[in-house]
Amino acid sequence: MDIVLFHSTYGLRPAVRDAADRLRAAGHEVWTPDLFEGRTFETVEEGMAFKDEIGKDELLKRAILAAAPYSERGLVYAGFSLGAATAQTLALGDEKARGLLLLHGTSDIAENASVDELPVQLHVAEPDAFEPDDWLNAWYLRMGRAGADVEVHRYAGAGHLYTDPGLPDYDKEAAEATWRVALGFLESL
């Protein structure tokens, strides 16, 4: 499977590279675009300020340009938090998308979004201040109306970016469970 894996608002951190290596070890080809051009951040607030400085349109442009050379192959779009939101936007706009793997995040869905049973898997903390229950319920319904085949996996007590061992949110048990399920999902595509 060909996978493009987008980083969170912290930037292209070692955890993203490690995740890509884990996916490669399972036989996948993985690209990890650096949408922040080498910048990484210690806090969410710093990363969000930089993201806002770049602007949503420029960030999306960078993501599209990074994925474009591989999209003819039929990509699986994946990402962490902000990167998951980016992956979702690209997957919903790419008729050749093979799947969507969302780790710790979702995004708005255009009213006219339409996919043909796109396999989608979301892994998110429970509760998650960035992905509140009301939002997730509405997101799930909108994704279904758009034609996606959605699975949601919740991890009670985990922090928002619980798969990143370099952050305070890290939860080893939830992270390993996430990777087990996610690798099975990718294998099924």
What does this 3D model show about the protein?
It is a single chain. By secondary structure, the protein is an alpha/beta fold. The protein is 41% helix and 18% strand. The protein is built from six helices and six strands. The chain has helices spanning 14-25, 44-54, 56-67, 82-92, 133-146, 172-188; strands at 2-6, 29-31, 76-80, 99-103, 119-126, 149-156. It has a six-stranded parallel beta sheet, sandwiched between helices. The termini are close together.
Write the layout of secondary structure elements.
Elements: E1 2-6, H1 14-25, E2 29-31, H2 44-54, H3 56-67, E3 76-80, H4 82-92, E4 99-103, E5 119-126, H5 133-146, E6 149-156, H6 172-188
Parallel strand pairs: 1-2, 1-3, 3-4, 4-5, 5-6
Summarize the entry for a quick read.
With 189 residues, the chain is an alpha/beta fold. It has helices at 14-25, 44-54, 56-67, 82-92, 133-146, 172-188; strands spanning 2-6, 29-31, 76-80, 99-103, 119-126, 149-156.
Low-confidence stretches: none
Largest sheet: 6 strands, parallel
Strand content: 15-25%
Rg calculated over all Cα atoms: 15 Å
* Helical percentage: 40-55%
Taken in chain order, the helices and strands follow as: EHEHHEHEEHEH
Please report the number of helical segments: 6
Strands across the major sheet, in which order?
2-1-3-4-5-6
Q: Which secondary-structure class do the elements indicate?
A: alpha/beta
Approximate shape: globular
Through-space gap between termini:
8 Å
Overall average residue pLDDT: 96
* Secondary structure tally: strands: 6
